[in-house]
Amino acid sequence: MNTHPSLSGRALVLGGGGSTGNAWLIGVIAGLRDGGLDATTAEVIVGTSAGSTAAAQITGADPTELYAATLTPPPAQVGSPFASARNRPAVDHLARTDAIIAASADADDMRRGMAASALALDASSDETVQARWRATVAARLPRTGWPAQRVLITAVDARTAEPVMFDRDSGVELVDAVAASCAGGFAYRIGDDAFIDGGYRSNADNADLASGCERVLVLSPFGGRTRLPLTWGLDLATQLEQLRAEGSVVEAIFPDANAEHLFGGNAMNAALRPDAARAGYAQGRERAEQLAGLWG
User: Which residues form a coiled coil (predicted)?
Assistant: First the structure.
């Protein structure tokens, strides 16, 4: 298959998508496996936000068991790790970030705005909130150590607004890397540094990090949609076009139209996780045979 000798290996790209997106990713991967395609054997796994959690989960536990766990609705949460230390009303993060995007001249400007806004939130300096968020993330991971295969976790440095990619050689614990990648509200601190959601690196998927891989499978809970201007060239479609231009064989799975209501504005509704997981599982089983040639 490889007509480009410079390319090698397989990459699995797991996009962001909130709580339901994470469940959908787990469902797709479990469905693919039950259909004969084990996506967890990828030499490179790219995880962004909810996808970073999924990356840590599927490399630390059996996808079938993870899928079964998503089918039980989680207990209602009391309080939130994102709550302000001063108990102010919750910030409307979507409106806040939409306004930043609208006021930005380019991607660098957008990242600077997102970083400054996140650092300004009370929770960014509250030790209790920071510790609660880390504990929340740690509870979702089956193991705390980095896996043997190459897992890339995306984030943005809140101090410099520069894109960041964590891996096992970064000197950062896996739970901290995931907590940083999922920090969609306040900035998550690791030592003297602080980070925000990896979805602000380029998009919710960051498929460009699969560059150099011969075969690429992208699972995108948001269906490749972006809130950024297309003129910035950071959308998933542009990244996939570039990967193909480099010689990679690329396939993507997006949620079916009849499951789209589970994402977007409902992405943080944990009660919808079972439905999202089932939808993902059905898609994985359906696509497994078709994609078998891609995985090899």
Answer: none
Using one digit for the tens of pLDDT, what is the confidence trace for 245-277? 999 999 999 999 999 889 988 888 999 999 999
Per-residue 3-state assignment (H helix, E strand, C coil) for the chain: CCCCCCCCCEEEEECCCHHHHHHHHHHHHHHHHHCCCCHHHCCEEEECCHHHHHHHHHCCCCHHHHHHHHCCCCCCCCCCCCCCCCCCCCCCHHHHHHHHHHHCCCHHHHHHHHHHHHHHCHHHHCHHHHHHHHHHHHHHCCCCCCCCCEEEEEEEECCCCCEEEECCCCCCCHHHHHHHHCCCCCCEEECCEEEEEHHHCCCCCCHHHHCCCCEEEEECCCCCCCCCCHHHCCCHHHHHHHHHHCCCEEEEECCCHHHHHHCHHHCCCHHHHHHHHHHHHHHHHHHHHHHHHHHC
- As a whole number, mean pLDDT of residues 82-106 equals 71
Residue with tokens 């894109």: 163
Share of the chain above pLDDT 70, in %: 93
Tokens for 171, please give them: 């000197």
Residues sharing a CB contact under 8 Å with residue 111, sequence separation 6 or more, in sequence order: 156, 161, 162, 163, 200, 201
- 187 confidence band (pLDDT: 50, 70, 90): very high
Per DSSP bridges, beta strands 193-197 and 215-219 are unpaired
Going by their DSSP bridges, the two strands 44-47 and 10-14 should be labelled as: parallel
Taking only the tens place, the pLDDT of each residue in 25-78 is 999 999 999 999 999 999 999 999 999 999 999 999 999 999 999 998 777 654
| Threshold 0.90, pTM exceeds | yes
To which residue do tokens 């994470």 refer? 22
What the block records as the tokens of 97 is: 């970030």
